Each structure stands twice: as structure tokens, then as C-alpha cells.
Amino acid sequence: MLDMIKCSTGGAYYARGEWVPADGNAPAALAAKGFDAAAVENAKTGTMAYSILQAHNTSGDAENLKIKFDAMASHDITFVGIIQTARASGLEKFPIPYVLTNCHNSLCAVGGTINEDDHVFGLSAAIKYGGNFVPANQAVIHQYAREMMSGCGRMILGSDSHTRYGAIGTMGVGEGGPEIVKQLLKNTYDIASPQVVLVYLTGSPAQGVGPHDVAIALCGAVYKNGFVKNKVLEFAGPGIAGLPMDYRIGIDVMTTETACLSSIWETDGAVEEYLAIHGRPEAYEALHPQEGAYYDSMITIDLSKVEPMAALPFHPAEAYPIRELMANPGDIFREVEKRAAEQFGGKVNLSLTDKLVDGKVVVDQGIIAGCAGGMYDNIAEAAAILDGHDVGSGYFSLSIYPPSVPVNLELIQNGVQQSLLQAGALFKPCFCGPCFGAGDVPANNGLSIRHTTRNFPNREGSKPGDGQLSGVVLMDARSIAATARNHGVLTPATEADYVPPKQGKRTFDTQVYDRRVYFGFGHPQPEAALKFGPNIAEWPPIPALADNLLMQVASVLRDPVTTTDELIPSGETSSYRSNPMKLASFALSRRDPDYVPRALDTQALETARQAGSLPAQVQEALEKLGQGSLAPAAFQIGSVIFANKPGDGSAREQAASCQRVLGGCANICYEFATKRYRSNCVNWGMLPFTLAEGDAFTCQPGDFIYVPDVKAKVLAGDDTFPALALSGGTVTPLTLYLKNTTGEERELLLTGCLMNHYAAQNQG
Description:
Blueprint: E1 5-8, E2 12-15, E3 18-21, H1 26-32, H2 37-41, H3 48-55, E4 64-67, E5 71-74, H4 79-88, E6 98-100, H5 114-129, E7 132-133, H6 141-148, E8 155-158, E9 171-174, H7 177-184, E10 189-192, E11 196-202, H8 211-222, E12 232-236, H9 245-253, E13 262-265, H10 269-277, E14 294-295, E15 297-302, E16 309-311, E17 319-321, H11 322-327, H12 329-343, E18 356-357, E19 360-361, E20 365-369, H13 370-373, H14 376-386, E21 397-401, H15 405-413, H16 416-423, E22 426-427, H17 433-436, E23 447-451, E24 471-474, H18 477-485, H19 511-516, E25 518-519, E26 548-557, E27 562-563, H20 564-567, H21 580-584, H22 595-610, H23 616-624, E28 635-643, E29 646-648, H24 654-661, E30 664-669, H25 675-683, E31 687-690, E32 704-707, H26 710-716, E33 720-727, E34 730-737, H27 743-751, H28 754-763
Helix pairs in contact: 4-7, 8-9, 14-16, 14-18
């Protein structure tokens, strides 16, 4: 794997088709190629990313960006909360195209009318505020955006982390719902100008090697070391020309799992044809790095050296060549089992070694689905591999979820669906379910191979707290099909003898959307009523920040990384996302079942303080902290979660909002895994405290942490917050940090949340 991907930490200049390292020899080397000092000085402006970002920047400051997007998209586990927040903040109409899709809640395993009530609400909101509404199972969010919204040089904001359309020349950014709200209220997405990392593609992939193989290898190379965290990946190089659009898209969508901010690719005739097929030829523009463009670092991928890959539980970055896994499955699986035992405290076991039969790995389930796996080319290639074969009648099963009805129609028209059905595969609706645990959940201790985006623990639907745990291995559709052909015996597609499908001209039937999608942008009907189901609830009141803060620790998570799927589980809980308090009851339920009761206990202390009385527990804590005379009105009480590195994964804001509605006031960590989770915390008024590397956090659940003068220090823009920790009856100093916090972020923290901030503006 090491020789297929090479990472260069130093900067480099793109100069006359060559790469010039940004070292002491660079000026002379560039001068020899005809670049003067001014060209070198302005080299950072030569990237595609720079041009697109500046075209959308309203600040007038090239280093501190205030971005306005061209369009936005949300699905049905986020749009109700977003619209409710925007309503409370003064929403009148959607100022830019905003698409509401229904690809998440449509098949979640709960009873009652909850799911469809959300869809009815979404359509009523699209009518009232002038939005576009895609009915359930018509398309997954990102495929619809690619087919109907993308264009070269555009920027799209989505409330889903896999908002990535770079292969079509569109910079997609996935953030939490509050950032959507800001755009709906005609405000901006504020970031410092990001670094740009070149991903230079050479060579051509071998038959049987698919986009997920490339993507998994890339994640394995850059995620754990933070090489591209919060940066923009810019794809260029001669290797792009030989890749079909679906292949490029399949790599691009997985850039989210590298922790980068966004992505952009060079465009060519293939992109031009794609946009023309989808009815938007005017959206094409040739995008290329300018001569002399400077990149902060560089990744080189030789596509000819990529081999079939597997991402082992429990992260896309746990990358192994399938060849290595097949050669040594016992040791590799035992290591995974060890990590699972450590992560879940021995409460539940994962016995992957049970999947070894006569030295071979036998899996239970194959899934090809959604925004990554469900692309036409992936499914067609799977059909070619299975042609004349079957998936068997044993434990192994194969399910396929196309990404949109137009793609499904194309699969039907070309005989691909028929071929796979005859092989024993099952076709499911256009639905994101397997990706987040709401469809085809594997059996306990099952092993599922999936061409989906994530394999976090319990992401696929297992419940470790109830003794249910399975494992997901990410693989490309091609190797999944090869494994299905061998009735579940793990097989890389490079070992399957098959004739790949011919690359014919693709089609797109726009009538599917013309007849079913509600296109309301530009035509709001303010008199129209929103339609509320009984599970759709308003956000509860959120308090502003007090002068001083008494935090009670509600959970301590020592895992290397804590995902948003752990902070608020996916799966059937998604159906409760329109009811803030009901959803909050599931917070950390699969990771720390005692979190919610602890948070509620702390919230009860705060309720008593607001009433003017201090419970004995609080008074005792204040006295030990040297604050026995502190008046109830001079401080507030809130719960806090500690995690080493929280927030990897989904953009969904509920990972933060659930904590907030339970009375959470802060997170403490050494590092936030993603910008989007930190932003969600800030937008919900939770202080994103960090610790210095090496500073020990010794508090346990139930302990108190006192932060004096917190309001004044936030107001002043201080980044250091001396605090006192009360643990085991002993008081010790603790230094918390609030670094790189903008003026607007401080205002959000002071007012208590985004809604309060906008409400104050409206009153003013």
C-alpha cells in the first residue's frame, strides 16, 4: 500500500507540467521556467479552490472568508430541525435554491406516523418558503444534487457530511444544520482561508479495482495523521482522464472520511458530457490549476498500483489490501476483536474469527448502496462479475440500493437489474438506510461487506448496550460481487474472471423528477400553513451564558476518537429527530447509557438554581471550591462531556443539540475531530473547550468544574480559562482553552445559541 500513495509534507508549485518543491531552490527553478517574483508571490491564487472560494467570498478579505453558497440540500433527518430553527430566527423565504430530500427517515424501523409526518412537514415548508421537495425514495440526497444542482465553479452547502461534488467541478461542504440556517437568513459561512492539498493522479486502475479501493487507500494514508484535516483536496493529473464519471464521483464522496473540508477536481470532456446529459450544458466550465499554482502539500496516487482494499471495523481508515487480509485473517481479526473489547469495556464481544472456515473468510452479507456504492457503473460491474453465477442459498445475501430512480430506470433498461435479480441479489429503494443503520442491519456477530461510506461501531444498527454487535468491512462493489459469486467467501475482484461492461453513452430521464419533484424555489406561498405531526416539536428555551459556570461531568469517554454516531445513534432513532427532547433521550445510549440520567440530574440542579434555591449538593461543591458565598443569580449549572477527540463522522447537528437540550454547556477535549462538530457545538451555545496536550483530565462523572468569569472572558476574546476541578473531595486547578474563536462565535456562545442570537438581532 505504501508504494501506491505518497504524501509530501512540503509545499509544491505546478510549473509547466512539473512539480517544483517549495524549498530554497524553488525561486531559481521557477525563474528558469519563466516565473518572475510576482508570479511566485501570488502562487496561492492559482489553485482551483482559491478561485472558487474567492468568487463566493463576500468579506473582501482573502484570508478570512465569508461564503455565500449557490444552493443547499438537506434530508429528512435534518430539515425539520433546520426549518424550526430558521423559523424561530425570523425566516421569511428561502433566498437560494434549497432542496429537501427524503432518503433517511423513509424506512426507519419505528411505528406510528412519525416518518411520513416529517415528509408532509417538509413539503409544506417547501410550499410556504419556496423550496424544492424530492419525495421519499426518489433519490438519495447527494445523487440528486449531482444530477440536478451541480455545476463547474459552484458551491453547495449540505447538512450531511458527504456533501462532495468536486468531481463535477462543484465544491460541496457538509456542515450541521445551523450553518444552513445562517444561509437561509442571508448570512455567511465564515472560515479562515483553508490550505489546499494537491491529489495528483497517475496511471490507470486494473480491472477489478474500483473507486472504493482508491478511496479506502487514501483514507488509510491520511486520516490518522491528520494530513488533510480541514483542508481542501484538489484532484489533478493525467490519471483523471481515464476515469469514468461514476468512478471519479465514487472517490470524491469518500474524501469526507479523510477529514478534509471540501474537494475539487479538474474538469474535462467527461464532465462536459455528464452535465449535458443531465440537461445543464451551460453549467460546464473547464477547471484546471493555473501555471505556477502553489499547494501546501501534495499526495500522489499511482492508480495502476492500487489493489482491492478492505476497511476493517470500525473506521474507513482501517485500510488493508484484501490480499493481506486473506493471507493472515486470524491475526488481523483478533486485533479487531481486541479493539472492540477495549472500546466496549468487555460488555459485548465481536468474534470475527468465527468467520474463518478452512482458513478462508466467509462473510454473511453484501451491500452496494447509496451515494458511494449505488452508482450505475458499480452496479453494472457487479452484474458483469455475477453474470452466469448466483449468490447461493446459504447465510450470505446481497442487497443493492440504487441512488436515484433515474439511475434505476437506466439499470432496468439496460438489463442490469434483471441480471442481478436472476443471480439472487435483491433490489431495494433509493434509500440511505444501510449506511446509517436503518436498513439491512446484519445479525449479531455478523460480518457485512459494504460499498457504503462508513463502518463506525454500531453505525450499521447494532446495539452494544443490548449485547448486539456486528462488524462492517468497507469494500468496493466489484469485490463484493466477486465474494457473492463465491457464496460469501471473501474474494477480490481481481481474482474473478469476467468481461467488464462496455462504456456506452449514459442516459438520464428527467421526466421522473419533472412529474414528482415539487419545484417551488422563487415561488414562496407565505400564506400556506406548515403541517405539523404530533412528533414535531419546537426547540425548548436555551439560556444565555451566565457570569460564572459550574459544570458537572456527565460522561468521560477515553476512546481515541468519539464519533457523532456514538454521541447520538443513527438507525431507528433518526425518526425522532423532529422532537428535540425525545431524540435527546437516546444521546450516548449505545456508548454510555448512564449519560442521559446524569445530564437530567444536572439539569434538575440548574432548574432549582433558576428558582432561587441551591441544592445541598451544589452548595457543598461551591464551598469546597471556595465559592460558598456565590449567589444563585451569579452563575449557572450545566453538564459537560469529556472525550479525547470527539466529532468524527456525520454533520448532523443533533450530536450537539441533544446535549444542549439536556442542559449541556460545554465539551472538553484535546482536539475536535472535525470542524463541523465544533461548529455545531458553538452554534448551539456549547463552549468548545480544549486541554493542552499532556494535561491530564482526571475528573469522573459526577465531579464538578468551576469556570469563573466565563462570560467576561468570552466577551473579551480570551483564549485561556483557568478553572477548578472538584474530584474526590480534592480541588485541583485545570486550564481550559477556547482557541481560534471568531467574534460571531463568541456572540453565539454569549447569547446561548444561534436562535437566541438572531432573535436578539430581530428585536434590535
